[in-house]
Write a structure and sequence with these properties.
By secondary structure, the protein is of the alpha/beta class. It contains 14 helices and 15 strands. The strands form 3 sheets. It has a 7-stranded mixed beta sheet, sandwiched between helices. Strands 1-2-3-13 form a 4-stranded mixed beta sheet. Strands 11-12-15-14 form a 4-stranded antiparallel beta sheet. The mean pLDDT is 96. Bound molecules: pyridoxal-5'-phosphate. Pyridoxal-5'-phosphate binds next to helix 5.
């Protein structure tokens, strides 16, 4: 039986991680040893379709040839200089990410959480310098059920008990309101408010999509109050929702935008905070930085990653394929399903609490060769690489249908 072979080849790797690694994750029992496009393989050679895409960090698919080429070309030249010097990659990268998003300026870091921290520091300093707020008074409004990362400051305004508990004391200066509630935003603004930080779709909270028109109202409220609208598009940005940026769905523009994940094409960590020169211009030398931030290897990879998104029209592809896939999912009649929802190729299947949690459905799908991950206990998240083909989505559909219909 292949089961025992699986034990013999993969098991030692899992045992080592379990023994020597902190248990801050609970991975599915699978070792991925190679990957290409939407497919990954375990050490035994079994193939799986990746319908998680590393939480949307793999929009361009695993090891896209153009991105891997950029990685190798740059690796042969220079990989790290620190920001003490210029490189041939930083300037062109910043220009290209600004042009893609329509902002004046960008500040590059590595992880998404660092870019969120950058945006928080930017908004607070902007409040002091441009609005004349006294020191340590700035307030930022965020939403319940948000996910913006894992630093102490960021978990300080999480509403998820597990993200916060035991990690205090917390950073003050944040206020939480309900997601999708424009009136609550209006009511929460005080003379000390500097920004509203929000995700266009709350992906980690279970793919929660706000009511139509919410962001137009939010845009208007922030403008009237003279506060910054900061969108965290680390997961929704770069084509995932069927537009290059999710804010385009409501035809608005935020004052600042945070990108990460797919910016590095699934190859290098790189993130940015983008804004107008008036806002991001508040940073002076020494105010903020990172040794590896905007390193030439990551910049070269990010330039190739953005080029792939544009050249292959992956935003348009996500819209077309995602709409069709969601419509097809809705034809599945399963007693377990409460709702199918999504935008582009970020899709959530919310199960009834009686279904016993989404994880066991994800485990079944894995046995059928399809990888996905539950989010918020009762939601199955489907987020394939945007390079996925119709045929591959059809393959996935059959497995999802089978598991939803046949699981007791
Ligand atoms: C993943 C994610 C982050 C954090 O990014 P890291 O690179 O894991 O630090 C922040 N915000 C959103 C919306 C995310 O999806």
């Amino acid at each position: 039986m292949t089961e025992t072979q699986t034990q013999s080849l993969s098991q030692p790797f899992m045992d080592l991680a379990e023994k020597y690694g902190a248990h801050n994750y609970h991975p599915l029992p699978l070792v991925i040893s190679s990957a290409k496009g939407v497919w990954v393989k375990d050490p035994e050679g079994k193939r799986y379709m990746d319908m998680l895409s590393s939480y949307s960090a793999l929009n361009q698919g695993h090891r896209h040839p153009a991105i891997i080429k950029a990685l190798f070309d740059q690796a042969r030249k220079v990989t790290l200089t620190s920001r003490a010097f210029h490189t041939e990659q930083i300037g062109p990268f910043l220009k290209e990410v600004c042009e893609l998003s329509g902002f004046d300026m960008a500040l590059a870091m590595n992880s998404g959480a660092e870019a969120v921290e950058t945006a928080i520091k930017m908004a607070r300093k902007w409040g002091c310098m441009k609005k004349g707020l006294p020191q340590e008074k700035a307030e930022i409004i965020a939403c319940t059920n948000n996910f913006h990362g894992r630093t102490v400051t960021i978990v300080s305004f999480s509403s998820d008990e597990q993200y916060r508990r035991d990690f205090g004391p917390y950073t003050p200066g944040f206020k939480l309101i309900g997601f999708g509630d424009a009136e609550a935003l209006k009511a929460a603004i005080t003379p000390n408010t500097v920004a509203f930080l929000v995700e266009p779709i709350q992906c980690e909270a279970g793919i929660l999509i706000p009511p139509q028109g919410y962001f137009r109202q939010v845009r208007d409220i922030c403008a009237k109050a003279g506060i910054l609208l900061i969108l965290d598009e680390i997961q929704t940005g770069l084509g995932r929702t069927g537009r290059m940026f999710a804010f385009e769905h409501e035809g608005i523009r935020p004052d600042a935008l945070i990108l990460g994940k797919a910016l590095g094409g699934g190859v290098m960590p790189i993130s940015v905070t983008l804004a107008s020169s008036e806002v991001l211009g508040v940073f002076k030398p020494g105010d903020h930085g990172s040794t590896f931030g905007a390193n030439p290897l990551a910049c070269a990879v990010a330039r190739a990653s953005m080029k792939v998104l544009r050249d292959e029209g992956l935003d348009e592809r996500a819209r077309k394929l995602g709409d069709a896939f969601l419509a097809r999912l809705r034809t599945i009649k399963s007693p377990h399903v409460k709702e199918y929802r999504g935008r582009g190729l970020i899709i959530g299947i919310e199960l009834h609490p009686s279904a016993g949690g989404a994880r066991r459905f994800c485990e079944r799908l894995m046995q059928l060769g399809m990888l996905c991950k539950e989010t918020h206990e009762h939601v199955i998240r489907l987020a394939p690489p945007l390079v996925i083909t119709e045929k591959e989505l059809d393959w996935a559909f059959k497995r999802v249908k089978k598991v939803l219909e046949k699981t007791a």
